[in-house]
Amino acid sequence: MNSSCSIRALWILNNQDTVLFSRRFPVVERRWNVAVNRANKRCKGDQGFIVLPSSFPTDSEIAAAFTERKKREGSALGYGIRAKQSVEGSDSWVDDPIMRHIVSLHVKKEENGEDYTFWPLILHAKVQYYILVLPLVEPEHLKAYNTLCRRSDCGNGVGVDGNLSSLLLQLPCITGAFMVAHVLGDIITSDIPEPEVVVSAGPSVGGLLDSLTGSIGISARPKPVAPPVAASTNSTAIGGGSLASDAPKTGPRNLDKDALRSFISTAMPFGTPLDLNYSNITAIRTNGFSPADVAPVDSKQPAWKPYLYKGKQRLLFTIHEIVNAAMYDRDEIPDSISVLGQVNCRAELEGLPDVLFPLTGLDSKRIEILSFHPCAQVPEQGGGDKQAVMFSPPLSNFVLLRYQAPCSIGVPVKGFYQLSMVSENEGAFLFKLSLMEGYKAPLTMEFCTVNMPFPRRKVISFEGTPSIGTVSYTKHSVEWKIIPSGRGVGAKSIEATFPGTVKFAPWKGQSSDDSGSVQGGDEDSDTEIEQGNSMVNVEEYLVEKMNKHLPAVDLEEPFCWHAYNYAKVSFKMAGTSLAGMMIDTKSVNIFPSVKVPVEYSTQVHSGDYILWNTLGKCPVAATPAN
Amino acid sequence: MDTTPSPSQPPLKPLTPQEWETLIDDHHHGGHRLHRWISSNYTSQPLFDLSLSSLLRKDLPLSLKLLISSFLEQHVTSLSPIPFIHQNLIHLLDTLRHVINSPIDPVTITYSLKEQLLISTTSIFIIFTINNNNNNNNSDNVKLSFVSELEGLIEVLLTIVNRTGYGLDRQLRGVACECLRELERECPGLLSETVGVKELRRVMSFLLEWPQYLTTFGLFEFMSVVMPVAVALELQASLLKVQFSGLLFTSDMLLCHAYLGMYLQFPEAFSGHENEVVRRVLLISREAQNALVFRLLALHWLLGFMGLVMSKTEVDKERIFGTALQFYPTVFDPLALKALKLDLIVYCSVMLDKSRLADANGEMDSNVGSSKGSVVKLFEDALESVSGFKWLPSWSTETSVAFRTFHKLLIGESSHSESGSSTRDLVESTIFHATERMLVTMTLESRGLIPVMAAFINRLLRCHKHRFLGEQLLQTFDNHLLPKVKVDYRLGSYFPLFGKIAENVTVPPGGLLDLLGKYMSILVEKHGLDTGLRSWSQGSKVLVLCRTLLMHHQSSRIFLGLSRLLAFTCLHFPDLEVRDNARIYLRMLLCVPGNKLRHLLSAEDQLPSSHSTPFFTVQSPRFSYDPKKSKDISSYIHLERVVPLLVKQSWSLSLASFNINGEKPNYMEVITDSNTPLWQPETPEENPESPSIPALEGPNQSQEPLRVTDSKVSEIVEVLRKHFSLIPDFRHMPGIKIGIQCTLRFESEPFNRVWGNKGSAELDLLHPALYATVLKFSSSAPFGSIQPYRIPFLLGGPTKNKIPSGQSQSDSLDIVPVNNGIVDEEKEEESFNARVLIELQPKEPTPGLVDVSIEANAENGQIISGQLQSITVGIEDMFLKALVPDDIHHDEIPGYYASLFSALWEACSSSSSTGREMFLLKGGKGFTAINGTRSVKFLEVSATSLIQAVEKNLSAFVVNVIGDELVNIVKDGGILSETTWNNDEASGSGLDVVAVDQYMTEGPLYLKYDEEEDEKGSNLHINKRNMGRFHILIFLPPTSHLLFQMEVGVNSTLVRIRTDHWPCLAYIDDYLEALFLS
């Protein structure tokens, strides 16, 4: 295993393929050249491929190589898996989805015209930026990749020698480089995720900087930072797809290069990352240390806790859950509903105490712990189900643990959605939903909205009145607000029905919306005639017709959303965990023993909460029998 | 900026902060943006000096100084020329000392500047002072330069580090530590004197006890340092295990990875924990809170980990199966994740299947049935998650993912390295059969997948290792899909797949032909008023498949089925064009030998741009004709042979003529090709193995006489050696060329109708011209590549048949300058003709067609392009005189030829003892052997006309005239020269210069020459009277010969023919008939 995790260089490009920022680490580059010379000397005898000692690319050469790769791979991220257009030597030839993120660049040096292959380059796309990070590997890894991407056969089997998986297992530097790339992405978009900790009915609690500036206690923040969980799952359903990813986007115009530089020089001064904790680094950069920051005498201060808290003590937990559901309302397909949760924590505790957090009783609820924060000492036998977990909390908000579970209390929104095309341009639909059936206090649903997206058709009008709530429509969707935000309701069962019709503008094959990579090509005129004759069902006819213009989705999507009719439910609840996660505040112990108030709150958000049109096609996945 | 510094290099003019930023940006950017700085000397040493001095300037903002410091670090190798390094390091160290010792103030000297300068200086020192001198293969010799400066730097760093008890600058101390660590890393042992061993132990034990106090990356670094030590000291891994086991459960990906690394270093210590690790890493992939790429990474680790672990430990089927169930994708898993989870399931299936096979080989396994069922169900269920591919368009990502999985399922564990296990086993596996079944079912249910399926099979077929899998799949489709497909109009969508089946020799074509037959009859049946176009299109597509079959299978294999199908189509198909084309294919199937046929068809395939004869292009609807330009061009632009061919029809000619008039040929020639057994449609049972060729005796190789080299034979061999050494070996050097004289002309009137400008003057219309004409030639016959011919200018000629009556008819002809007969017509015509020489370099003496395309500019700049009538190359075009060695005098030539003739004549007899002799060709690389064949031709023609014809057409090749009577007649004619005259030999006494072979008359000849056939008439008796003999020697390029011995009688002549290229006999028959009997 390659023992180091160092970075030779990194670049940040925008979507016009211009390098906005670059940083080379000459010390790491020196190590690469030493390794290359050594390797070349070793394999002098055999005619193995010789890695050229690096001649480091300029920004303009990188930009040119990036543009060339974009052309070769179809988009900035590329096909990933082997496509019709893939050629030998390209990333997609390797035929693996991760090749969209671990890429190669063929740099042509301006001065001598020689070609250099750079791999593995970590490619992270964030808003309109592309971040490229080049970790240090051994020359033989580069050779191994070259073999993989240039082999002229039909592609790798699983579990055979010399495959990509074993290469990735050998290279923790790739993992580390991804972490670097993600932090840099967060910095340049000023989108530093911080776990949200909510005190019951109060606003979010701020992070490290708030504590440092002395605002002890609950401080209102102008903008509560959305937890990363919610952000990662929302946007996909509507208007997703690969088409948008390369299009120019609007966003922060200029990089804050000074912030980047100062972060880099502290986080990885010589190219080897030391710490990527942005808030700690920023705090040190901006505040430095004062004579008051004295190291504790009785214990060692961890590297990840440069400052100690001083002030009124308390311990806050927030259970944050995302519920995903695929509701089919069909006999042959079971509904699937799952909860993804995390316990966020903020420990305003003086000194360096340990906290014992009970995990008892989780097993009965079939809650499965996914991971713990590194500050936690996990019992050796791992399973989170039996005991308690001891942790030494860092200063800022952090995610103590993550878990997944089935829905242990009733389904928050259930029922069905039926949409039937009565003609080519008109659909009749019916919703029948029940909300919070069998729910008990303390629980509130803060809002609940049902959205029917029609990304490929233009909505002209709709008719129909829901039994509760209000309806509005936009060009490509109809929205039904069952519970408007700001008018949350307590735990009571709500029945909601909504029959209606929706009218669309006539279907135009190549509408402007899905122009672009419609790769269909030659339709067989013969089959089309055949269909016209035999198709009695207008719906099937329409599906066939519209499918001809379906663009392929990105590998990041779960399926081709546009191929289905569905309604997406969005809601937020507070007061109870759907997974049944409980925190017994009395059993939380602090060592050395000190009496501090322990509070906890719960939030449940909807993720991909989808009601599939009962009368249409729907994506499914089999669940294992046992 | 504008002032360029003088050569003595005074300090550069200081830059403003904006200029600095531009300079740094431009240096990063490189290329043209760098040039202006170089030209104004802001480069190299002057820039280094400027940078250092700028760092100390008080008026520059702090952020800029940080930038300059980092810039110096990144570009120092180009900024500091080698001779200046020492001076620069001193300078740099001074600057560092100055900054470090300056008291902190909030504006000019801050901690961040001190830190940055420490880092940059250390970096630069590492680059310049530590040299890895890896001359020795194993150990790196680290050599230090500028040691005193380096010691200075270390001293500065240690001073900072040791300033303890002063809390404010602890970050700076940390940075200094980091600098020392980096120096030590690059030069191990550098600081060994500074740090005591005792201290090292203390630190080590502290860190081992409290690893959780480190940051993530710190812990990783520590582990990567500790791990090799632990391995080297053979430490008990249990210690590490206790301390680091928790890492697997953290949400930090790097720490999880570090754990896996540790696991793989101490596999024994961790054995038994495999399942826990697998389960745990799988959970990482489920953390939707993580970025997708980390979840993908986790699955890759799993694949890699399972590969490493399972190859070593015994496989517990139940466990694997249980694990595999965990990999089921969920609905909302991104497709990338689904793809990798499917990989894992494939891997588990393969492992299960392998263990099942192993069990089955040993004892009876009670689980075989159940595990077989479950393995299949495993991946069937798993594929549900992308099942949308069955109805989504073929380009959907779901489809790509599904077929990627199919590929992995099919190839299973077999790697592409040569040492891999026998891949044939794959075909036996449960998985393979199940996958095959799935693919067939899918194809039946979702026609949209057919192109994808075809591409999929192609991917396998192209792989050197898995080609047989593709073939196996095609066979499965042939066996299981073809009987089940519904034969209706939708069948057309299966054609991409059928094309693959048709192309593959391993698939018997019977099933496909059967199905196509049914389809054709349905097309015929359903044909109505509104289906005209569809019948045409579908019929044409079927014919394309027929053509594919013709190209890839031996004629005998497809003969019955295909001829039936084509015959049916010829007779019944509603569309004329399809009927015509079917007829052509049928004719080709019947008449053209297989090899030649495939060559003809495939040549067309390789050169789609130069479609020679129109029927091919019509055949495939992909090529669209430009009706205006290319359709009729050959009706008024003519390229014609100067010397017309004697033989107007041969098989190649008759093929071309089919297309034009669609008539049946007058006769069919049956020629076998060497690879394909002949298949005679009428009597298929009758001895298909032995080819029967009319009037032709095949090479008889089985009767090999003992070789006895006597003086006569060695003389013959000597002559032949000399002769062959003159013949260039076309495989290694330019071969012998033949030229065909042609003329190009075109008719003004029809030309103007198509290309003329209505507005232009009448005179122009009268004499249109072609400018810069290029004639390009191509041929499916083995004539090599033919050079294009260029004609700069050509005037249009009058339309021939209109001239005589033209005067009064069209107004354009009113002032035609040419009148009928008065002007010297030939001379006039000459000016409208351009001479064209087509030079061929035959690889085989055979007739053929040369396709001609023309490109030219018209008067008004239009580009004229299209096909002209093909030029026919006859066998007589191949006739050349044998080469004569340089050392033979002019008057010795007849004698040389005569002896060459005798030698070749002898060598070409089947009993020749030279048969095994190899003759070196010119160039010294290639050899040839003489494999002689004989034939005879009886010509009922009077001696007079025979002699005339010989004098006219073969005079150049006559090497010997024997017999008084003949010699006298011929000598009188005076046409023959360079000939040996043999008056002395008595006529009729000896028929041959060499011994007559008695088999000659008993061979498969229909001619009874000299006896017992009197009933037919008295002519034969008269024939007996011989006047003498001609010996004719013809060289056929590239290396063959044709010899005639004509025994001239008064009213008939017997031609004995010998050749060392037997296929040419097929044309000679026609040629002799045309020459003498017409």
UniProtKB/TrEMBL annotation, chain A:
Record's keyword terms, sorted: Membrane, Protein transport, Transport
Protein topology in the membrane: Peripheral membrane protein
Picking any one GO biological process from the record gives: protein transport
Q: Which InterPro entries match?
A: AP2_Mu_C_sf, AP5M1, MHD
SUPFAM superfamilies given in the database record: Second domain of Mu2 adaptin subunit (ap50) of ap2 adaptor (SSF49447)
Q: Where is this region: Disordered?
A: 505-531
Q: Which PROSITE patterns match?
A: MHD
Q: Is Transport one of the keywords?
A: yes
Cellular component GO terms, alphabetical: AP-type membrane coat adaptor complex; cytosol; late endosome; lysosome
Similarity comment text for this entry: Belongs to the adaptor complexes medium subunit family.
The identity of this protein, by name, is: MHD domain-containing protein
Q: Which organism is it from?
A: Ambrosia artemisiifolia
From TrEMBL, chain B:
InterPro entries (alphabetical)? AP5B1, AP5B1_C, AP5B1_middle
Region (Disordered) residue ranges read 676-707
GO terms under cellular component: AP-type membrane coat adaptor complex
Pfam families, A to Z: AP5B1_C, AP5B1_middle
Could you tell me which residue ranges the AP5B1 middle domain spans?
197-597
Tell me where in this chain the AP5B1 C-terminal domain is found. Answer: 1023-1074
Q: Per the UniProt entry, what are the Gene Ontology biological process annotations, in alphabetical order?
A: endosomal transport
Recorded superkingdom: Eukaryota
Report the protein name in the record. Answer: AP-5 complex subunit beta-1
Organism, as annotated: Ambrosia artemisiifolia (Common ragweed)
